[in-house]
Amino acid sequence: MDPLADFHVPLYEVKANLFKGLAHPVRIRILELLAASPSVPVAELIAATGQEASNLSQHLSVLRRHHLVDSERRGSQVFYRLAHTQVAELLAVARSLLHEVLDTTRKNLELSAGLPGISGQDERLVEEGRQ
After folding, report:
1. Which residue has the higher pLDDT, 126 or 86?
2. Beta sheet of 77-82, edge-to-edge order
3. What's the pTM?
4. Which of 18, 55, 83, 120 shows its CA 20 to 30 Å from the CA of 45?
């Protein structure tokens, strides 16, 4: 089923389906590899991801179904490329967001390291609150 075929589905559901298509580390790795080159042969994707050919084929099928990659046969080889330049932009935005979240988390941890420790009585209250 084509995730974009039903025009009566609300846009937020279509977006959620797109993110489901992205929701695997191997698929993200494939997209990152494709974002770095105009086109990549399947053999190179297999080597770079460490996936068996059949497993990689399943991931590429999901990415094609979600209109994220295109393929082209050249002789006996199949090459893949990003279907849209916005996919690379989406990966870059996600990377930037993750850096920002990690930086904020690091700063919060540094700030919390300077807080006073919990006294015995305060520690008992915290434990009682967990129960």
Report:
1. 86
2. 40-41, 77-82, 69-74
3. 0.77
4. 18
